[in-house]
Amino acid sequence: MSVIRKILVVDDDPIVGKSFDRVLTSKGYAVITAISGEEALLKLNNEHYDVVFTDIKMPGMSGLEVAERVKASQPWLPVVIVTGYGTGANEERAEAAGVSGFLRKPLSPEMIEASTEKALQDLAVAVAPVVAAVPVAIEVVPAIEMGTGKTETIKNIALFLAAPMIGLAYVVAMPFVGIAMLVWFGSKALLKRN
Question: What pLDDT does residue 135 have?
Answer without folding.
Answer: 54
